[in-house]
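Structure tokens please, single chain.
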Amino acid sequence: MAIAQLDISVTEPSLMVVPWHDPVVDSVGYDVRSQYVELFWLNVLGPTATWILRRLVLGFDRYPLGYELDLGETASALGLSYTAGTANSFMRSLNRCVLFGVSQPTDGGLAVRRRVPPVATRHLMRMPPHLRQAHQQWNLSTTRISLADLERARVLAEAMVETGDDPDAVERQLLALGVLPAAAIEATTLAISRGFSPDAA
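Here you go.
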């Protein structure tokens, strides 16, 4: 599926930024300014996009319903240059936020998550081993998962993956069903490792 990119015209020096309301992620996710984001989402988004995301969310402290963002001023405050179009580091980083699902284009603006979901398994698999281990330890230290909860999540994940669901969609569906984030990640990883995948069907 193609990701919609931002298209800011020359006559638009500003952008409306509004909160992205997502009941599932808002209930289980992490604040954009949390240590979790700094440790794990930074590896996914990169430093510039992470700082932009934090700056966008900071605006909601003063304007919770949304605000108008001066693109040139914001880029300058972050030490970046800005010219109209997408061929500059500021716009590429805004588009990176869209690409990885922490923001999305809306009519005349950008909806931004105040809380981000746990890092998806596919992103964890691309991280260096020490970060994967740190993420596993993070889950163990913040969430105690009972064997019954993990087994229930595993059975659901295997059924979803076996029917062809994408691993990211499986994790999201498990979260929507009330499965704890750590259990959703572990169950999806187990389902894939045991050969329950569209490729194995």
